[in-house]
């Protein structure tokens, strides 16, 4: 791996891309620690640690706890992207744009940007008035409030711009790397808290390290795991040339939906608690309490059960959105391809649906286990790490994606890469 890194830095273009990416991430981390003027960050940090915004603070790399310029993080953009993906299923015009290639994708991305700014504006207003209830904004006049709202909204727009700069001139996917940097930035503080709590209990620390490595290895195996469906293309003779006759495969991933089921499940569970912060209705407060991750200082079993069931449901839901067996079967028929032993058309579509349903279940159960495992460890062992399963999966997935990107660049220049 270190040899591959040295080889990567020997290539001027690749070296400049890596250094550019590091520079952009440094700018992002600087903005994440730049607290807005006129706010009491101590009060905000206390509410974030005890309230429902802990996950948002994790994805923003502590920016929300500091109430910095980048407090909203990249979550408005992720939400906008999810909304656009869902709308493509119900709005034929958007579905048509998605199938028009690069031009259509640019139009959808442009709509996603505008939607991101709108969501960021609404979230900044809600967040400002939410923290006002705890006295975190002493001078609550309209000029000061307007400054905070505009700054928070502009911060999200700047993060989008930084991510696109990495896409154009850096390494890998910019948005993913920004989330990765936010998650990784919490590790040093978590390790310090762990050593302070456990001291020189090396047995516990060793077991924790082994468990961490095991979880990471399991995530890599599930992320890389796939069922390969063989595909054969019929031979066609045009003049004196023979076309087709090749064999390939359709890769169906075990975890086809990625981390989206966890994000959607968390959003559903946090929605009643978020509304309950602004509306003082008894029945709504009761629902928020029952769906809270903890009750009376201990983990809430109702939350764990509902959380796991929602993850499995959303795994099937998002897999159905991201992979359409009917379109795949139609494309195979159109280009002369077929799955051995299966008739083109409906039989092929039914076969792909059957395989996809079977491999989605273990992937969904794995996602649920990884999502609830950190919560159980924090409750039973008192581990001070505030990392959820979502953050671990995202960190590992982005690292794999970036390694593959560098691997492809090295292979183009006949260098040995990360993955053999």
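Sequence proposed for the structure above (420 residues):
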């Amino acid at each position: 791996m270190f040899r591959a890194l040295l080889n990567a830095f020997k290539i001027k273009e690749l070296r400049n891309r890596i250094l550019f990416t590091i520079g952009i991430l440094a700018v992002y981390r600087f903005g994440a620690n730049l607290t807005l003027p006129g706010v009491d960050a101590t009060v905000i940090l206390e509410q974030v640690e005890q309230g429902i915004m802990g996950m948002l603070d994790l994805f923003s790399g502590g920016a929300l706890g500091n109430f910095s310029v980048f407090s909203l993080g990249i979550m408005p953009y992720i939400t906008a992207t999810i909304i656009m993906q869902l709308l493509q299923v119900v709005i034929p015009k958007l579905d048509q744009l998605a199938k028009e290639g690069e031009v259509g994708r640019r139009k959808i991305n442009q709509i996603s940007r505008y939607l991101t700014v709108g969501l960021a504006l609404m979230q900044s207003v809600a967040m400002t008035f939410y923290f006002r209830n705890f006295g975190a904004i002493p001078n609550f006049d309209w000029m000061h409030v307007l400054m905070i709202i505009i700054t928070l909204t502009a911060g999200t727009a700047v993060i989008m711009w930084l991510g696109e700069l990495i896409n154009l001139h850096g390494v890998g996917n910019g948005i993913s790397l920004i989330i990765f940097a936010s998650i990784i930035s919490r590790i040093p503080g978590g390790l310090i808290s762990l050593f302070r709590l456990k001291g020189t209990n090396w047995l516990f620390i060793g077991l924790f390290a082994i468990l961490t490595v095991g979880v990471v290895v399991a995530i890599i195996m599930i992320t890389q795991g796939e069922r390969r469906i063989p595909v054969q293309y019929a031979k066609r003779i045009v003049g004196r040339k023979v076309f087709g006759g090749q064999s390939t495969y359709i890769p169906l991933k075990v975890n086809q939906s990625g981390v989206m089921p966890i994000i959607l499940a968390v959003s559903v569970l946090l929605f009643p608690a978020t509304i309950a912060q602004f509306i003082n209705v008894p029945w709504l407060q009761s629902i928020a309490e029952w769906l809270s991750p903890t009750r009376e200082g201990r983990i809430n079993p109702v939350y764990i059960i509902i959380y796991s069931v929602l993850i499995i449901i959303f795994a099937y839901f998002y897999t159905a959105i991201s992979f359409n067996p009917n379109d795949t079967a139609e494309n195979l028929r159109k280009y002369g391809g077929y799955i051995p032993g299966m008739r083109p058309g409906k039989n092929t579509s039914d076969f792909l649906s059957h395989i996809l349903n079977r491999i989605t279940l273990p992937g969904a159960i794995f996602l649920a286990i990884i999502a609830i495992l950190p919560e159980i460890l924090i409750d039973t062992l008192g581990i001070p790490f505030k990392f959820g399963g979502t953050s671990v999966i995202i960190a590992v997935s982005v690292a794999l994606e970036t390694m593959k990107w560098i691997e492809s660049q090295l292979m183009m220049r006949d260098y040995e890469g990360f993955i053999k």
